[in-house]
Amino acid sequence: MNKQLILFDLDDTLVHCNIYFEQVLQKFSHSMIERFGSKRINEEQIRKKQQEIDLIGVEQLGFTLDHFPQSLVDTYLFLCDLYNEMPENETKEKLRLLGQSVYHMDIEAYPDMVETLNQLKQSGHILFLYTGGVTEVQFRKINQLGLEYFFENRIHVARHKTIEEMDRLLHRIQADRSNTWMIGNSLRTDIVPALESGIHAIFIPADNEWNYNIVEVKTEPAGAYLTISSLNQVPNAINAYLKNR
């Protein structure tokens, strides 16, 4: 069987991510309801505005340490302006610290992560980690879970995971695109760039997906485009495709 180059996303593919942001957002929305409760604002309205502000920040700047904490502050400022109330510096600082706390939580791996990566490595495939985010934050997760064992120096952290970034990476590592795969949970940053670049893609939908990651896939695959429900199905999905092509 041909040796494959398999690129893995990190957040919500190999390790949990959204659940930690969800914990922070629940605390944030509850604090805003407590602060502006007399105005009859509800959690859905607060979350919708925060998400709107957060998405604009990501689209303009990519993933930075500041964009998520700032989205909490900016949502608070929006509510103050909406209800003609004076913002409090102490509240802004508390919200900034709340937003930053998401980057310091202990990270939990997805079920069967180690077993899946071991199986692929022992089968002779080359594993590559291609993730988006802030380099220092992502490497804290990588180090915490010992992922260097599987990926060694084949780790690339991008501020923006775009079609252009994917194409540049594939050129840099001289990938044989007919034997290269992208595994991830994001249609926007994993699957569409993979298909546009002419490599295989395996989509593993995440629970409670972030709206930023959800886009329509219009690209005709040059190779495989598979959807599976869990990480431990990756080896069999690849093997089945290789046997039948």
Rg, please? 20 Å
Number of β-strand runs: 6
Q: Spans of 5+ residues with little confidence (pLDDT < 50)?
A: none
User: What's the rounded overall pLDDT mean?
Assistant: 92
Distance N to C terminus? 12 Å
Give the ordered list of helices and strands.
Answer: EHHHHHEHHEHEHEEH
How much helical structure, as a percent, in the residues?
40-55%
Q: What's the shape?
A: elongated
Q: Helix- and strand-based class?
A: alpha/beta
Q: How large is the count of helical segments?
A: 10
Strand content: 5-15%
Description:
This protein is of the alpha/beta class. It is built from ten helices and six strands. The chain has helices at residues 18-36, 43-61, 67-82, 89-100, 113-122, 135-144, 148-151, 163-172, 187-196, 234-244; strands at residues 5-8, 126-132, 155-158, 180-184, 200-203, 225-227. Strands 3-2-1-4-5-6 form a six-stranded parallel sheet, with helices on both faces. Helix 3 runs antiparallel to helix 4 and helix 8 (163-172) packs across helix 9. It is elongated, with a radius of gyration of 20 Å. The relative contact order is 0.16.
Topology:
Blueprint: E1 5-8, H1 18-36, H2 43-61, H3 67-82, H4 89-100, H5 113-122, E2 126-132, H6 135-144, H7 148-151, E3 155-158, H8 163-172, E4 180-184, H9 187-196, E5 200-203, E6 225-227, H10 234-244
Parallel strand pairs: 1-2, 1-4, 2-3, 4-5, 5-6
Summary?
With 245 residues, the protein is of the alpha/beta class. The chain has ten helices and six strands.
Keywords:
six-stranded parallel β-sheet; 11% strand; 245 residues; single chain; 10 helices; alpha/beta
